[in-house]
Backbone:
């Protein structure tokens, strides 16, 4: 594990915003996504490798590793009649934030409680870092590893914040 | 030198060199600038705000009103820094303020001679007339004469960090109460943050000789500090002031990360602004000693008694050689004992009270002269030399003294406790205001709660945590009790004006005297808030921490009321001054706010684009080419190239919203004035939205891609607002509709390809799609696949030319753009920016931001016919209000100058020929203006009364801002291709 923290862009992933149709059967929706129940403020990994992140009431972000270009359309077909799907594969930039100080650095940016008791493995939240909205979740892996999604136009600003916040944290040690 | 030979929490093995007003001195690590100056016998450190009176060091803490200096030099110079909280470092450089030419000889001190003119409110009375001189003459002169330090006017070279923290319990202050509370809480297992403004914990324990559970206070403090420091559930923030309590149990804190260093280490922030969310907070901020009111109580050498004890014990400095103690409280006697044991010659202890505390006996035995029921009348000397005292018998005595330690009693430091409108209440017992109803989640303990003895402070620390853990249902109960000796803490404040001959100050930093308070009362400013504003008492950077209660009491006396009936002020953040840079943090300069970049931002930079801000977006405004004289030449070229050949413009910033669901069409019918349920799949339609009040909200095109899926676009400026509007409609107005909406603004990079050659370019690039007018007519739309990716093509036009918009997922936007340019190379395809886009829309009479101003209706914009009569929609009822249908309302027209070479400016007002250019004759205003290459003239869009009926009429565009009055002719707002032949070509 890196000593401080590093922010690594995750490329080539399929991303889609999913909203349940009115009165949709949540169990059915979960089954279509290969999970037991739809997550609320949690990030769940399905057997397929797809990650389903609860982002709001009956709203989710679904992320697929190594997605084909038409993954968004195929997901829409898979969930047809149960949920509405908007392909966001180009809309969000995804980052992985890892390292011994990842949590400490994220806490400088996000005003949500990231203590392991409050935001443990699989926790997810929508929040703001450096004046930009982000969807933040902790993976279910062993080491504390965070991932976040933000609208792609904010990438340069977020990366700038990361650089200066990391430098300030390093100088404080 | 007045450094004691032993003692103090200073490191005598680390001598430090520093300078004050250019003269070099030495001190030790552990000193403050104030203690080091006192150790060097420097008493005069500044001149006062208004009267330029000599001032010294009054306190030993952050409440200091007098010892304010400019610290550091060059760009790092910072004015009004309290010497009492400035940690000494090697090479420290400070200069005194508010004096000219020198500190000891200040010409402005003649203000004292003019003192009768400078009483409270003088500037309201003296500089009233002529009023026009106020801004230009009086105010600058007064400000220069009365200002404290000056800013460097250079950019701040330091950086500021920001951080967040969460805890069950925030303990504000690490004195005995705070330490006892933090330890109890920490041992119970809850999450604790202990914030202390000082570099050391211990608070008052550093200024005395107390014992706790039989252990010396210093050792007790060190033991508890060590235990807390090693506990994983405790965060210790030293050099950190909590400066405000905010809604939602949130506290603001400023951590002085590097202020104790000559300059921050590379990359190290100077300060860090914390936002702390705490379920509960303990206000353990202690108490602040009150000055006594007597003549020249501001002389250097007059000091708070508690501060004298601090300098003796913590810094091993005797602030004088011949001392006199003047007290209304038992704690003053404690200082007298401290002075005596430090070997300072004690001339007398003067107590305002009849009954003296038990501690007086020991002093009497030591041969100290004691005067009960006596008053100090005046202090004498530029720095204190003599003290004039009236004894109980009414006789006047004069004592030689270079140090006067005064104690008027203690006021709980409840500034934070009266944030959020929490009003303090009067305690008859301690004769001070104590916290009443506090900010939610906050509890005061120890001296901050008016419980002044060490025993009470420790008891509060433990008990308060027990009740908090019970209430929150977290953690275990305390196991330890802390016992201290009993001590005398009585005080009988002397709420009376000075009986001396010279000025007696209540607010030292703002030079407000007891007589100013009386004057305020005479002039009718009898509310404590009015008195505050009239006299400016409590409005300096120290926020009246020392003088407020005395002033309230004097006001009560002058108006024959009891103090609780006068009341006191509330406080609001910040409790201590906070550098504005800390609030900005890393968001400064170009990074003040985030920037949004479109997919082809880097490409545009490579093309020499000049960018314009559109909200947070950076949009290419134009693409200059070598040899072009100015932007107008560039924009004119871009328009001509597009209208005669083909141009390409990044329109990705337009808001884009997916509207899904079986009821999507129904929702759109209600959002837009015109019908969308009739729109066939594969077609786009222009839509206009109103606000509920009937005025135009936004417009854009919406495309139907499936029975249950529409793709909406909005203006760039309103993208977020329209999304909110839709969510409101879905969630609040019509939760019964089965419709879902998602912002996909960021998903699609979209490029407008416009001009007579646009079809040729796209057909070359997309040979598999039939782009003929028959197969893909105006307002057609389709999905297609580009390099395996989902892509979309629309036949839309904002320019009025044959035009298309092409979209691909944004991460491939630049690749698409490059391919479009490759395909368009043989057609001399030209990139154009938002300025050319604007010119072409004005030439076509399309309303945009300037016309969608929130004050225009659909009728005003010539779109009244769009309002469907077959359905209901948001804004329908209010849009039909009589006044909004008045044909005399300003409505959209075009204008052009009668003399073709003349310019017109947006914002100009339209006036009838021959009418005076006054508001009563206003006929409307010019909303948008452009130089039209197609018309070879400046043209404009305007909102004109009865506009549509006045085509051909001549008016004047009166533009006082630019000094123009141009004769214009009213015309059709559509200047280019009014029949719309080209878009359908």
Residues:
């Amino acid at each position: 594990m890196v000593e401080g923290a590093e922010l690594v862009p995750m490329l080539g992933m399929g991303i889609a915003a999913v909203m349940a149709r009115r009165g949709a059967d949540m169990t059915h929706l979960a089954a279509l996504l290969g999970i037991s129940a739809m997550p609320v403020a949690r990030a769940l990994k399905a057997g397929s490798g797809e990650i389903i992140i609860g982002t709001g009431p009956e709203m989710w972000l679904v992320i697929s590793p190594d997605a084909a270009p038409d993954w968004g359309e195929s997901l829409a077909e898979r969930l047809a009649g149960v949920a509405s799907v908007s392909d966001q594969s180009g809309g969000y930039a995804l980052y992985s934030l890892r390292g011994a100080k990842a949590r400490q650095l994220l806490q400088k940016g996000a005003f949500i409680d990231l203590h392991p008791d409050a935001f443990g493995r699989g926790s997810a939240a929508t929040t703001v870092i450096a004046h930009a909205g982000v969807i933040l979740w902790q993976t279910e892996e062993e080491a504390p590893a965070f991932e976040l999604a933000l609208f792609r136009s904010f990438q340069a600003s977020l990366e700038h914040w990361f650089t200066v916040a990391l430098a300030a944290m390093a100088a404080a040690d | 030198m007045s450094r004691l030979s032993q003692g103090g929490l200073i490191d005598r093995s680390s001598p430090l060199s520093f300078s004050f007003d250019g003269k070099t001195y030495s001190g030790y690590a552990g000193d403050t600038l104030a203690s080091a100056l006192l150790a060097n016998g420097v008493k005069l450190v500044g001149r006062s705000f208004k009267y330029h009176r000599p001032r010294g060091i009054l306190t030993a803490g952050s409440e200091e009103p007098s010892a304010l200096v400019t610290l550091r030099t060059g760009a790092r110079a910072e004015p009004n820094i309290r010497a009492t909280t400035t940690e000494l470092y090697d090479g420290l450089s400070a200069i005194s303020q508010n004096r000219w030419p020198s500190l000891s000889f200040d010409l402005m001190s003649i203000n004292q001679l003019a003192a009768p003119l400078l009483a409270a409110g003088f500037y309201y009375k003296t500089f009233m007339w002529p009023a026009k001189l106020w801004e230009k003459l009086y105010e600058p002169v007064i400000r220069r004469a009365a200002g404290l330090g000056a800013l460097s006017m250079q950019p701040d070279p330091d950086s500021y960090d920001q951080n967040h923290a969460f805890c069950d319990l925030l303990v504000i202050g690490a004195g005995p109460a705070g330490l006892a509370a933090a330890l109890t809480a920490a041992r119970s297992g809850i999450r604790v943050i202990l914030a202390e403004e000082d570099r050391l914990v211990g608070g008052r324990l550093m200024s005395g000789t107390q014992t706790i559970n039989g252990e010396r206070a210093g050792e007790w403090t060190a033991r508890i500090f060590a235990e807390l420091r090693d506990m994983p559930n405790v965060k210790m923030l030293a050099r950190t002031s909590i400066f405000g309590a905010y809604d939602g149990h949130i506290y603001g804190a400023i951590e002085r990360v590097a202020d104790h260093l000559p300059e921050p280490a590379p990359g190290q922030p100077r300060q860090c602004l914390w936002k702390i969310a705490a379920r509960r907070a303990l206000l353990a901020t202690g108490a602040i000693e009150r000055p006594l009111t007597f003549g020249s109580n501001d002389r250097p050498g007059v000091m708070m008694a508690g501060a004298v004890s601090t300098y003796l014990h913590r810094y091993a400095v005797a602030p004088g050689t011949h001392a006199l103690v003047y007290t209304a409280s038992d704690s003053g006697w404690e200082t007298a004992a401290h002075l005596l044991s430090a070997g300072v010659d004690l001339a007398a202890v003067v107590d305002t009270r009849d009954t003296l505390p038990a501690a007086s006996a020991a002093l009497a035995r030591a041969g100290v002269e004691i005067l009960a029921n006596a008053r100090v009348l005046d202090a004498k000397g530029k720095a204190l030399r003599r003290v004039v005292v009236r004894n109980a018998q009414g006789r006047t005595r004069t004592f030689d003294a270079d140090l006067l330690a005064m104690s008027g009693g203690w006021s709980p430091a409840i500034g934070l406790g009266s944030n959020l409108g929490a009003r303090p209440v009067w305690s008859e017992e301690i004769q001070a205001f104590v916290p009443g109803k506090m900010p939610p989640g906050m509890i005061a303990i120890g001296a901050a709660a008016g419980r002044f003895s060490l025993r009470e402070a420790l008891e509060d620390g433990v008990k308060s945590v027990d009740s908090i853990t019970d209430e929150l249902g977290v953690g275990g109960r305390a196991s330890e009790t802390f016992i201290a000796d009993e001590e005398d803490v009585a005080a009988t404040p002397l709420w009376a004006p000075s009986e001396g001959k010279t000025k007696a100050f209540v607010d030292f930093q703002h030079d407000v005297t007891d007589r100013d308070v009386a004057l305020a009362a005479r002039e009718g400013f009898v509310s404590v808030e009015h008195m505050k504003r009239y006299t400016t008492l409590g409005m300096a950077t120290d926020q009246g921490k020392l003088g407020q209660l005395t002033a309230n009491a004097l006001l009560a006396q002058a108006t024959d009321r009891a103090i609780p009936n006068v009341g006191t002020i509330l406080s609001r953040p910040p409790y201590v001054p906070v550098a504005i840079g800390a609030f900005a943090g890393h968001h400064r300069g170009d990074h003040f706010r985030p920037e949004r970049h479109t997919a082809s931002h880097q490409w545009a930079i490579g093309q020499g684009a000049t960018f314009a801000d559109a909200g947070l977006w950076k949009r290419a405004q134009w693409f200059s080419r070598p040899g072009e004289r100015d932007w107008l030449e560039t924009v004119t070229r871009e328009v001509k190239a597009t209208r005669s050949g083909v141009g390409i413009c990044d329109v990705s910033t337009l808001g884009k919203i997916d509207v899904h669901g079986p009821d999507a069409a129904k929702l759109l019918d209600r959002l837009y004035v015109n019908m969308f349920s009739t729109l066939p799949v594969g077609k786009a339609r222009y839509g206009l939205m109103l606000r509920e009040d009937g005025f135009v909200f936004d417009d854009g095109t919406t495309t139907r891609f499936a029975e249950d899926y529409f793709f909406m676009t909005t203006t760039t400026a309103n993208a977020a607002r329209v999304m909110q509007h839709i969510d409101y409609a879905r969630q609040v107005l019509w939760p019964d509709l089965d419709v879902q909406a998602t912002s996909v603004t960021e998903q699609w990079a979209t490029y407008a390809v416009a001009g007579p050659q646009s079809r040729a370019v796209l057909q070359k690039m997309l040979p598999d799609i039939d782009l003929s007018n028959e197969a893909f007519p105006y307002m057609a739309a389709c999905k297609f696949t580009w390099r395996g990716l989902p892509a979309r093509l629309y036949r839309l036009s904002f320019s009025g030319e044959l035009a298309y918009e092409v979209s691909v997922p944004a991460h491939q936007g630049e690749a698409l753009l490059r391919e479009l340019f490759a395909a368009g190379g043989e057609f001399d395809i030209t990139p154009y920016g938002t300025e050319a886009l604007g010119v072409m829309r004005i030439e076509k009479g399309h309303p945009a931001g300037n016309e969608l101003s929130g004050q225009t209706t659909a009728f005003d914009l010539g779109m009244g016919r769009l309002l469907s009569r077959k359905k209901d929609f948001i804004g329908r009822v209010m849009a039909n209000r009589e006044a909004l249908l008045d044909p005399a309302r300003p409505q959209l027209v075009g204008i052009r100058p009668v003399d073709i070479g003349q310019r017109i400016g947006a914002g100009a007002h339209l006036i009838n020929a021959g009418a005076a250019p006054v508001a009563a004759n206003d006929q409307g205003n010019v909303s948008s203006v452009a130089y039209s290459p197609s018309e070879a003239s400046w043209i404009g869009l305007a909102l004109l009364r009865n506009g549509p009926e006045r085509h051909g009429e001549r008016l004047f565009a009166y533009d006082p801002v630019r000094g123009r009055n141009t004769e214009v002719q009213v015309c059709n707002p559509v200047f280019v291709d009014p029949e719309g032949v080209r878009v359908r070509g």
In short: The mean pLDDT of chain A is 94. Chain A has two domains: 12-87, 92-172.
